[in-house]
Each structure stands twice: as C-alpha cells, then as structure tokens.
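Lab notes, practical 5.
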Amino acid sequence: MSYPMNKPLPPGTYRWTLTMLKPGNGRWPCNGTYSIAPGDTRTGVDVLEEMRVYCARQIGIPLHSAQASDFTLHG
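Output from the prediction step:
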C-alpha cells in the first residue's frame, strides 16, 4: 500500500530501505524495520529523515553531506 509522504502514517511496523550516496564511494544500501504506535503523528518525511541520520551514522558519513535516494517504506 502506498501512503502520502506528508501525512501521518497508520500505526504498525514498516520495513524500510534507503540508499545512501557516500561522497566519492558510490551507493550504500541501508534497511531495517520501523514501528509507528497508535497516536503517533510521524509522516513518511519524518521517518525518511530519521533513517537518513541513522544510516549516515552507521556508515560514517557526516550528516551535512549525507544524501539519501531510493527510499521505500512498506507496511
């Protein structure tokens, strides 16, 4: 199912994938699960930003240069 990125996500557990663009070293895949609790108002954009920060820290990219592409969120 597809959800608008700017609307609150329904409660549930989501699988996500994200490709980070590491300067000079190409593309790095990152993935995991993410839970939205009832009453939580996070949007797809909020989740994307949290996952961008998480992935950047995992692979050692400074946050100011961490670029994400190919983000998917599956409920």
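Observations recorded by the TA: The chain has a mean pLDDT of 89. Helices lie at 44-59.
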